[in-house]
Specification:
Layout (H helix, E strand, L loop, with lengths): L9 E5 L4 H12 L3 E6 L19 E4 L5 H6 L9 E4 L13 H29 L2 E5 L12 H21 L5 E7 L8 H4 L2 H9 L9 H12 L10 E4 L7
Parallel strand pairs: 1-2, 1-4, 2-3, 4-5, 5-6, 6-7
The chain binds NADP nicotinamide-adenine-dinucleotide phosphate.
Length: 245
């Protein structure tokens, strides 16, 4: 038996249009799943390699999850769901998150929308005894200098993962999370595209390199597969060792 064969399974990756979510979506696609992804832009053609995005073989649709009503009104183009991945996320730099409207905006995308999507798809996941994978961050465990909203939202996702894992175990749904370290995507371009910041960051990582969206996809496959069948409510720190000291 191949435990990471997802043939016949339906996977939805919120935020699968680019970066980590896209890497996760491609891994599920390559392991046989029918994969649906969404993002904020009108069509798949609006994404390029610059966005760390490749939508080939994935079903793309536009859905802005920052408004509850959008998520509630959304009619999914599938009638069963085995895996829900919540990889939506945003961050604001230059102290912007210290302003309340911005703090709320980041919380709406990074936290409120995750709960909303989980609730929206709970009935479908209960039907299949499916699995949820939530994208936290190193910020789920540690403070992030200058980003109060990002770190508060990611900290909350860790206990949300624990709480939903406990609550939905009786439905046969496992809920786990991935807390990535530094991964090359469009939201981290400010660091990897800046030679001095990039060099400094490497000194913080025992494995001496950044991670890739595909590597996060490998962890998501594991978490959603029978290999992790006795695991729920956990958020795995996958950071090249950055959080070890
Ligand atoms: N990169 C890292 O080093 C790192 C580290 C730790 C955690 N993370 C987390 O990993 C997740 C993915 O981030 P990423 O680095 O892959 O960045 P990314 O490429 O910008 O991906 C973020 C995804 O979220 C989507 N999104 C943002 N706002 C949305 C909204 N209102 N409605 C629907 N979708 C929305 C984006 O859609 P568009 O493509 O249309 O913008 C995109 O698909 C996030 O939760 C992030 O916090 C990233």
């Amino acid at each position: 038996m191949n435990e990471i064969d997802f043939s016949g399974k339906t996977v939805l990756v919120i935020g699968g249009s680019s970066g980590i979510g896209n890497g996760i979506a491609r891994q599920f696609r390559d392991h046989g799943a029918e994969v649906y992804v969404c993002g904020t832009r009108a069509s798949a053609e609006d994404y390029t390699a610059e966005d760390v995005s490749d939508l080939s073989g994935l079903h793309y649709f536009q859905l802005d999850v920052s408004h509850d009503d959008n998520v509630q009104a959304f009619q999914p183009p599938f009638d069963k769901l085995d895996v829900l991945v919540a990889s939506q996320g945003t961050v604001m730099y230059k102290q912007a998150e210290f302003q309340m409207p911005n703090f709320r905006k980041v919380l709406d995308v990074n936290l409120m929308s995750v709960m909303n999507c989980c609730m929206k798809f709970h009935p479908m996941l209960k039907e299949t005894k499916g699995s949820v994978v939530i994208l936290g961050s190193g910020a789920s465990f540690f403070a992030v200098f200058g980003n109060p909203a990002y770190s508060a939202s990611k900290g909350a996702l860790r206990t949300l993962t624990m709480t939903l894992g406990e609550a939905w175990a009786r439905d046969g749904i496992r809920v786990n999370g991935i807390a990535p370290g530094l991964i090359v995507t469009k939201i981290t371009k400010v660091t990897w595209d800046h030679p001095r910041r990039y060099e400094d960051s490497l000194n913080e990582i025992p494995l001496r390199r950044w991670g890739t969206p595909e590597e996060m996809g490998g962890i998501a496959l594991f978490l959603a597969s029978p290999l992790a069948s006795y695991m729920t409510g956990q958020m795995l720190l996958v950071d090249g060792g950055m959080g070890l000291s």
